[in-house]
Amino acid sequence: MLNEHLGKINLDLGVQEELVLPTIDVKVEDPDQNFKIDDKDIEEYRELKKRREEEAIAKAKGGKKKKGEGEKEIKVKDDDEGDKKDVN
Q: Which residues contact 74 (CB under 8 A, 6 or more apart)?
């Protein structure tokens, strides 16, 4: 709309130029947007911090592993004679 009016004026003046509407790249031109924090961000940070503390404590205690993290379950089967054999 604005460019249409300016285009008519430029035509009357004999000026030939292409008019474009400027756009704003918010990340570049408004860096304060990066620092806007809401409640969701705070909760996510608290969970991350708690998880890191738990991992640090577990590592300090000798790195207890949770079930399924690198541990292999050994299956044992009884044969007819009562001896136990490794199935893996």
A: 86, 88
Domain segments of the chain as ranges = 24-62
Q: Give the position of tokens 């035509």.
A: 11
Residue 42's H or E segment, with its range, is helix 39-60
Instruction: Report how far residue 37's alpha carbon sits from residue 44's, in angstroms, rounded to the nearest whole number.
Output: 11
Residues 38-60: pLDDT tens digits?
A: 999 999 999 999 999 999 999 99
| For range 21-26, the mean pLDDT | 82
Longest dimension (CA), the chain: 107
Residue 70 per-residue DSSP state: S
Q: Identify the pLDDT of residue 24.
A: 83
Residue 64: predicted pLDDT: 53
Residue type, 62: G
